Each structure stands twice: as C-alpha cells, then as structure tokens.
C-alpha cells in the first residue's frame, strides 16, 4: 500500500530526431492520503516465479563476471516495465531527478545551448543573464575539456550531465575559439538556470507568432506574458496568431490545458480514461480568450506529440483554430510517476486521453486541416531582367503615391520571405491575412 507519497502525473513527451534529455515531464505534485490496496484475483504464478529464481541463481553462479543482486533486480524491474509499452519505465534516483528538473525548466548549470560537432561540444548560444554569458562564452566555441576530462569520446548527454551541477559549484572549461591560436581556460560557477519554453514575436503588423518548444509547469504563465507583450508591441489587439507546436515532444498535461484554455471561451479541452478511479479526469475552458477570438493557425508536424496533440486536438474540435502542417506523432497516453522508498520511481501508463469530440489519437495522430509537405522557402536570385509594366511605358499617366506604396510593399514581402525561409510559417501568415481581408 502507498501512504503519503508524492504522486506525479504526467503526459509523456517523446524523444524524436536526436532530441537529447528528458522526453517526459511531470503534470502535478500533490500529497495524497489515499490508501491503495492491491487485490490479487488470481493465484500467484508459482511455476513462473520458480523459473525466475532459478535463472537468477544461474546468473549469480555461472555468468562470466560477478553481478550484484542490486543490478540484477533493477534490470529485472526495467525489463518488466519496458515489456508493457514504450513509455512505462523504471527511473533510478538520478533519472527521476532529471525528470523533475525537466518539468520545472529549472536546474543547476551554466546556461548554454549546445550540440555535438566532430566529437566536441559546440556552443549554439549562451542564454541571457546566465553564468556562461557573464563568463564570456560565445556562440561557436568548441568545448574540448570539462575540468580535467577530455570531451572527445563523450556522448552529448554525458557532457551535459557533467556541466550541470549544484548552484555554487565550479567547473573549468577548456575552449577552442576561432581566431585564437591557443585554447581558453574559463572557470565558471554554476547557478540556477531557468529556461523558458515560450518565445514570441510579431511576424508582421497585427500578426503575432508564439513558439512553444515543450510544456513545462510555467508554460501557461509564460504564454500569457508573451501574448501581453505582443499586444503591447502592436499597440492593441492582434488580427491573427500563429501557434507553432512543431517538434514539440510534449510535457506537462496541466500546461497543455492552460495553453488551450488561453484561446477557448468554453467547452471541453481534454479528458482521460483508465482502469483506476483517479485516472478519470475532465478539463474545461474558462470563459476568456486572451486574443479576443482573433483567427489562429496552429502549426504541427510528425514531431508534435502528447501535450502538443492535446492542444491541437482541443483547438481543432472546438473550431477555434486551423491546424496546418503534417500529421502529428500519435501519442495519446498518460503516465503516472510513482516514487519508491529507495529514491527511484516507476513510470507507469495509467490512462488514455481523448479530444473533446471523443477521439483517441493513440497511434493515429492529429490530421491537419491543411496538409503541408516539408519545404524550405528561398528568395529568388536577383536578376537584371524586369517585366514591362504600365509605369515603364512612355507617356504613362503618373500616380506617384500608389507606385511608391506598391513598390514598398513588394520590397517588404521579398525581404520577409528571404529572411523567414519557413514555408509553413509563411503559408500560415498568408492564411491569417486572407481571413482578415474576408472579415473586413
């Protein structure tokens, strides 16, 4: 039986396309006083248990190298859970701690986004106002040593784990920087790093863009801040919004509910069903819409999973947004994290979630309203050839104001297309502008 345990309920994200780190995040943490009593309806499978103990003994006695009881039992638990489905798992203490850090978007570290290049860790960018930025780390730096350990031969995950640590602890980075003949040695004191999963900007006057990279516990609040900033920058309300959920592996279920609720005035957002009573949940929208019912386009692709699909499904079923892009991943199950007495945890699939219309997207995914293939938008090469227009004809009637306006508009469109190079995003923006024209 379980008493006074912190129970974590999560909507599991999926690690896709080389994503490194936590692919699942925690929904909620709550104290429970509920006693759970297991009732065994069938007799224990004594023959199978006997076979297990025999094999356990054989490994202990005959395996080429000694193996500890702890390792054998942990591996047995892992195998038991991994045989259920791809998302159930046994988390040892370190893995459990990483999962909790991924949930909050807060951890002890340096504050750099990194990738792997030729066996070394390459700095993609330092995060603003973090120890790495203050120490002078720059984009493009190659980290070749962490303290006295060479990075060559490490996996990216191991390197990231080495750079993380308790706030206040110190690490020495040896860095190769382009233009310098000798490596730099930079000592950095770790601090608490807070990452934001929401980024926003104006695509064009009156049209906003919000990118959500994962669903963390603070994502809902960050979204509200981002939308408020967009409206302030625009000097009023927006005429349309693009919500980008591409390659978002999922995360906290509550965050997905908050994001959906930000754009819905009423109705069901999502519900879950499972075998146990507390797996049955329903979430409904509150009567507010943070962008005052302005048209929306939600971008999804094959990397949009779990919590991303909850948002896309809710906005699609409620007719609140147009879903554009590719069919999503199709992960429609909920995992519960049950901490154990040894500091580890069991991650167990306990429910399926359903969109407001009753769709289970497990292994099905969300079908976009407008399907788009993956394409890249490139600006045309400049050419000396120009088509002949009325303005080029001799003795044409002058309209300097209209000519200047048309030329400026054309130049702005070409510049925007060249800078964006994102076919799906441009299509979404064009659709929003079309809707706005029709409404006028």
Secondary-structure map:
Blueprint: E1 6-10, E2 28-31, H1 46-62, H2 69-82, E3 89-91, H3 93-104, E4 106-109, E5 112-117, E6 120-126, H4 131-134, E7 142-146, E8 149-150, H5 156-163, E9 170-176, E10 184-189, E11 191-194, E12 198-204, E13 207-212, H6 219-234, E14 240-244, H7 253-261, E15 268-274, E16 281-284, E17 296-300, H8 307-317, E18 322-325, E19 333-339, E20 345-354, E21 370-371, H9 400-420, H10 423-439
Parallel strand pairs: 13-14, 14-17, 17-18, 18-21
Antiparallel strand pairs: 1-2, 1-19, 3-20, 4-11, 5-6, 6-7, 7-8, 7-9, 9-10, 12-13, 15-16, 15-20, 19-20
Describe what this molecule looks like in 3D:
This protein is an alpha+beta fold. The chain has helices at residues 46-62, 69-82, 93-104, 131-134, 156-163, 219-234, 253-261, 307-317, 400-420, 423-439; strands at residues 6-10, 28-31, 89-91, 106-109, 112-117, 120-126, 142-146, 149-150, 170-176, 184-189, 191-194, 198-204, 207-212, 240-244, 268-274, 281-284, 296-300, 322-325, 333-339, 345-354, 370-371. The model is unreliable at 1-41 (pLDDT under 50).
